[in-house]
Structures are given as structure tokens and as C-alpha cells.
């Protein structure tokens, strides 16, 4: 009879991303410091892991405040992506939540400098171009602006003009 321990079983985890626009239509976007999914320095929306018993909306609000200092109100889920970083042990389901700023005009602050390099307001067309050119290592702007896998899946699977969102109410 074998005495080997049972193989470890991995299950997908849940990540939540807060999609926040300013009055000019730009999105809060931050550059990660750590390696997640084998790539360091990728761009992301504020977000993180869903905690036990937490709603997607509350997670988006909490993570945004923790990471950027911005107070937001979650409005609704706008997309879900299936993100397999490594088929053996790293698989996420990412829930994207539309959020509105409680105080329009406030600027994101770097609250977790060990995790994020900086926060910026970025045009959707730039995000889309960075995602579509992910493998470009020659053009300097594209080589240094890589997006986190869930963002690339969002751009691929949910064209912005199909979101059907009213950002003004």
C-alpha cells in the first residue's frame, strides 16, 4: 500500500478589478511591481482577491481605497474573464466592477509602494493598444507597457463599445 501523500489540488481563485473613469474619460491604471503570472511590471486596474463572505462590489471598493486612497462606489459587474496563468497551479476568475469616484477630481495615491510602482489616468485606446501589442519587444513604448493577463482578456473578449455603460449617472 502506498504511503505517498495525496497530490495537492488547486482551484481557481477570484480576483476583482475596479474600473474607474475620471471626468475626462481616462481610467485609473497602475504598474505592478511584483511578478504575477510570470510577468513583472504589468499594468492593471486597482483590485485584488475576494475575501470570504465579501461581495464583488465591496471588494472593488475596499481594494481601490487600500491601493489608491480613492473612495469609490461600485455600480455593477461589467465583465468576467477566465485567466489561466499556469494550467498546473495558477488560475483566476476575474470580476470587473464599474466604479464611480465619490470625490471627482481626486487623484490616486500610491498606498502600497511595495506592490505598485505608480498610478496614472490612461486613455482606453492606449490600454487597448498595449494589450494588442503585448508581444512587441522592439517598439520602446510597447515593450515597456505590458498589461496584466486579465486586462488583455478584457480587451479581447469585451470591446469597450459593447459595455453599454452610462458613466455619468
Walk me through the structure.
With 169 residues, the protein is an alpha+beta fold. The chain contains 4 helices and 10 strands, in the order E-E-E-E-E-E-H-E-E-E-H-H-E-H. The strands form 3 sheets. Strands 6-1-8-7 form a 4-stranded mixed beta sheet, with helices on both faces. Strands 9-2-5-10 form a 4-stranded mixed beta sheet. Helix 2 crosses helix 4.
Number of helices: 4
Main beta sheet, described? 4 strands, mixed
Can you tell me the residue ranges where pLDDT is under 50 for at least 5 consecutive residues? none
Whole-number radius of gyration? 17 Å
Q: Average the pLDDT over all residues and give the rounded result.
A: 89
Strand content: 35-45%
Shape: globular
Share of helix, binned: 10-25%
Strands of the largest sheet, in order across it?
6-1-8-7
Order of helices and strands: EEEEEEHEEEHHEH
What oligomeric state do these chains adopt? Answer: single chain
**What distance lies between the first and last C-alpha atoms, to the nearest angstrom?**
65 Å
Strand tally: 10
Q: Strand pairing plus helix content: what structural class?
A: alpha+beta
